[in-house]
Amino acid sequence: MDNALLKVRETGAPIKTTARQYGVPEASLRHKLSGRVDPEATRSGPSPMFSQEEEAHFVEHLKFMSLCGYGYSRSEVVEMATEYAVFLNKRTSDNHCHFSGIPISCLIGQNLTF
User: Fold this and answer.
1) Are 85 and 49 in contact (CB under 8 A)?
2) Helix or strand run (H / E) with residue 46
3) Is 95 in the same domain as 63?
4) What is the pLDDT of residues 26-57, one digit of tens each?
5) Has residue 21 been placed in a domain?
6) From CA 6, how far away is CA 105, in angstroms rounded?
7) Is residue 13 part of a domain?
């Protein structure tokens, strides 16, 4: 994407042709060039609720509990994430995390692996 942006900006090459040439979505290239989307943005949507350190702590707890024989359902993990967010003052107790069919790794971040 960076090379495509650079080519269009420096040479005035057509966006559609450049997008095809670099294998990037034309709409994304257009949006970044127009300023509609931050050119530095690497993903869309809201920022993760937990920092990488907080997420790592949460994941380590889940892994440890798994080694002890405790398995959690998705809804239990979401409830625990809510409680953790409340503890960290990132949510209120009446503002629960939801998964609505979204993989739990998307709610917490991208590195939830067991």
Assistant:
1) yes
2) none
3) yes
4) 998 999 899 887 777 766 667 778 888 998 99
5) yes
6) 33
7) yes
pTM score of the predicted model = 0.53
Q: Output the six-digit token pair for 23.
A: 């294998």
Instruction: Report in angstroms the alpha-carbon separations of 74 from 4, 50, 104.
Output: 40, 18, 7
What is the spatial distance between Cα 47 and Cα 111, in angstroms, rounded to a whole number? 14
Place of tokens 């609505």: 100
Instruction: Clarify whether residues 30 and 56 are in a common domain.
Output: no
| C-alpha to C-alpha distance for 24 and 20, rounded to whole angstroms | 7
CA 21 – CA 41 distance, rounded (Å) = 21
Query: Is 50 in contact with 58 (CB distance < 8 Å)?
Result: yes
| Amino acid letter for position 91 | R
Range of the domain at 85: 52-108
Go through the chain and tell me how many residues it has. Answer: 114
Q: What is the mean pLDDT of the chain?
A: 81
